[in-house]
Structure of Porin:
Amino acid sequence: MMRYLAVFVILAILGAAAQPLPAQSSSTATGVSNSMNPAISVNGLFLGQVSRDNPDHEFNNINVQEAETRFTSIVDPYWKAALTIAGHPAHSHASPHDAGEDNPDDQAVEETSADFIFHIEEAYIDGRALPAGFALRMGKFFLPFGKHVPLHTHQFPFVHSPLGVSAILGEHSLSESGAQITATIPVPWYADLSVYGVDGRAGIFDAANKNYVFGACTHHLWDIGQNSTLGLGGSALQGPDGRHPGESIQLNIYGADLTYKWVSAGQSKGPALNFTAELIVPDSEEKEGSPLGWYFFTQYRPHRNWWLGGAVSQAVDILGGHSDHEKDESETPLGEMWEYKFNLTFAPSEFSALRAEIVFSDDRAGDEDDLQFYLQWNFTIGSHPAHLY
């Protein structure tokens, strides 16, 4: 109880110490003020997909992958707010690694053109002008774990999440309600440290458990010459294990990531190269085997509007997937699964992209190999905020 009280005391002190920033003028030539209107953006993802080995309609269709509307605005001199509402087709399971078809506890939802689910993806406020370089975020937000989890779907470098992420953390991002404090670290390079406490309602956690989920992450970024950067990150979170509801079993997840980016300094939108690798290691009191997930991908821009991408990902000793229902683990044996991805993206501007992708899944423990083909169209309209670096 004392640790929760301490968190609220710290938040109250930071809020009280915040210095207000100058408010924007609300006067206009017409007398109608736009300063009271939030910046609005809409993103749409359309996806066509074909599977060589899976005949289900869910893997052979043309549909809206996701539609997202985002509102951002300055609330007052002390706060900035953001709200993101996203909708996507209903699926028969949360991820390709969830429980099998014979599990009677699965609440399956057959996908049809009428089954479309909307939900609040983010709804938070950020403190402005906090003292000593601190940043405060309160509300519902993506957990700052690693490189992939904080991304919105339209920011993914490939059509879906890497296998090494989705098998451990779930196909959908970890969006939780709580508070986060970030501080810059006084070192010669850029570095920050974030700590957070959230409610823990994602499928990987036991939502019925009264204990909160706590986590931390740190990012470090170095300039390497005039046209490249190197980034290192570390993450950790702790909460009640969703695989054992009601048993008060602790789940710890650790992560490390590496990012290298290079862009030609000789011309605008010239050749560019990105490389990202991430390792995720879950550690539960009831774990079996040595579970882990990892991925790395590279993207190369040979021409100003074209990107080539390739990725490899692996999940080891992962029992099924995470959801809100208890699984029959005997039907989902421990094993090893690999995933290989290649894509070609035409991005004429920051507001649209057309992507063709091929994915091969190699199940080393069973017979769930698959070859999938995707064609994705991504567009954005309105005032969209900058993407994460």
